[in-house]
Write a structure and sequence with these properties.
Helix content of chain B: 25-40%
Number of domains of chain A: 2
Largest sheet of chain A: 2 strands, antiparallel
Largest interface: A-B, 25 and 34 residues
CATH topology of the largest domain in chain A: 3 helical TM bundles of succinate and fumarate reductases
CATH architecture of the largest domain in chain B: Orthogonal Bundle
Largest sheet of chain B: 5 strands, mixed
Shape of chain A: flat
Order of helices and strands of chain B: EEHEEEEEHHHHHHHH
CATH class of the largest domain in chain A: Mainly Alpha
Number of strands of chain A: 2
Shape of chain B: elongated
Radius of gyration of chain B: 21 Å
Helix content of chain A: over 70%
CATH superfamily of the largest domain in chain B: Alpha-helical ferredoxin
Order of helices and strands of chain A: HHHEEH
Structural class of chain A: mainly alpha
Strand content of chain B: 5-15%
Structural class of chain B: alpha+beta
Strand order of the largest sheet of chain B: 2-1-5-3-4
Distance between the termini of chain A: 80 Å
Number of domains of chain B: 2
CATH topology of the largest domain in chain B: Fumarate Reductase Iron-sulfur Protein, Chain B, domain 2
Radius of gyration of chain A: 22 Å
CATH superfamily of the largest domain in chain A: Fumarate reductase/succinate dehydrogenase, transmembrane subunit
Strand order of the largest sheet of chain A: 1-2
CATH class of the largest domain in chain B: Mainly Alpha
Strand content of chain A: under 5%
Oligomer: heterodimer
Number of strands of chain B: 7
Distance between the termini of chain B: 73 Å
CATH architecture of the largest domain in chain A: Up-down Bundle
Chain lengths: 129, 248
């Protein structure tokens, strides 16, 4: 006699293994990526309203509450970046002839690009005064 | 000297008499070179002949003996008792599948999904044996070889939360095989296979938890296959809409 037993999937599945918790953290930290994109739009909007509005906005942003919030955000975004770079070799299977480019090379190349882009960005900021 | 023993907490379900599964403890002799499957076979031989489970090759090739060992999907033929001794070991049927009996799961859903990706070479122009084989260079072989090592043990289905929450998701093993054939230079079934692989129930159902690759005993890396499948599906979409005349 066949009488298959059906089990429902536990709602707390993501608490049941460190790998699942890490996955949830990776996904949740992406919210901060969207947040900083939104924040940049706010910054540009204030800049478009004139130097006084921009200065007022930046003064607000230097308040401890905002600084702490953005420090947390920065950590979250850096963690998200790290997880994203780590998973990239699975998406990019780069082959040279019969050999596959090692994962470390792909991950390393992204960090190099990250540092170069960041350096150029900060250099431009300095130039702009 | 008294013989060393270890306790196996085994989930039981006998459809003709049990309304729900329950756990039964068995005390089993502990041997350093025994795997969980050896212990289960010892129980069946000496303690309880009614215990049901699947197994065949005992060497990690057939993919029959996958079970949850202390909550993790494992092949019981390469999971040693010594990894857990002296603590008890809990053995359950693979999650994300219905239970047929004791540790035996219903494979019907998996087999249906496997069929959908057409895991065989599709040819429009078929060669006769006299015309010789479909040749392939080593470079062409290496594009898909890793994804062809799957033994259909279904550990990846038990590890995947998406399979658990959305049963219609084709799942890691079937999609890895689908991508394996998409990447095979001998195959000519791109369009019909991409319909399944590139669908919402296909690669786009995957949220890239990546646990399928962690538990895979054959290092197939289904998560990689699926992400590469997403790249293929995206390129395919662009080709279809931007160059409708360029269809294969």
């Amino acid at each position: 006699m066949r009488r298959p037993y059906h089990r429902s999937y536990p709602k707390d599945w993501w608490l049941r293994h460190p790998h699942y918790r890490r996955f949830m953290l990776r996904e949740l930290t992406s919210v901060f990526v969207a947040y900083f994109a939104f924040w940049t739009i706010c910054l540009l909007f204030q800049a478009s309203r004139g130097p006084e509005q921009l200065a007022a906005f930046l003064t607000t942003m230097r308040k401890p509450g905002w600084l702490i919030w953005h420090a947390i955000g920065l950590l979250a975004v850096l963690f998200h970046t790290y997880t994203w770079f780590e998973t990239a070799p699975k998406v990019l299977a780069v082959r040279i002839g019969e050999k596959r480019v090692p994962d470390r090379v792909i991950v390393g190349a992204q960090w190099v690009a990250f540092v170069v882009v960041a350096a150029v960005f900060f250099a431009l900021l300095r130039l702009a005064g | 000297m008294a013989e060393e023993t270890i306790v196996l907490r085994v989930q039981r379900y006998r459809p003709e008499q049990d309304s729900d599964p329950y756990f039964q403890d068995y005390e089993v002799p502990y041997r350093k070179d025994w795997v969980v499957l050896d212990a289960l076979n010892w129980i069946k031989e000496y303690k309880d002949g009614t215990l049901s489970f699947r197994w065949s090759c005992r060497m990690g090739v057939c993919g029959s003996c996958g079970m949850m060992v202390n909550g993790r999907p494992r092949l019981t033929c390469n999971t040693f008792l010594r990894e857990f001794y002296p603590n008890p070991i809990t053995v359950e049927p693979l999650v994300n599948f219905d239970i047929e009996r004791d540790l035996v799961i219903c494979m019907d859903t998996f087999l249906e999904k496997l069929k959908k990706v057409k895991p065989w070479i599709i040819r429009r122009e078929v060669k006769s044996p006299e015309e010789g084989p479909y040749n392939q260079t080593p470079a062409q072989l290496y594009r898909y070889k890793q994804f062809s090592m799957c033994i259909n043990c279904m550990l990846c289905y038990a590890a995947c939360p998406v399979v658990g929450m959305h049963p219609e998701f084709l799942g890691p093993a079937a999609l890895a095989l689908g991508v394996r054939y998409l990447l095979d230079s001998r195959d000519q079934g791109w369009n019909e296979r991409m319909e399944e692989v590139g669908s919402h129930e296909g690669v786009w159902g995957c949220t890239f938890v990546g646990e399928c690759s962690e538990v895979c005993p054959k290092h197939v890396d289904p998560a990689a296959a699926i992400q590469q499948g997403k790249v293929l599906a995206t390129l395919d979409w662009f080709k279809r809409w931007l160059m409708p005349w360029g269809q294969k």
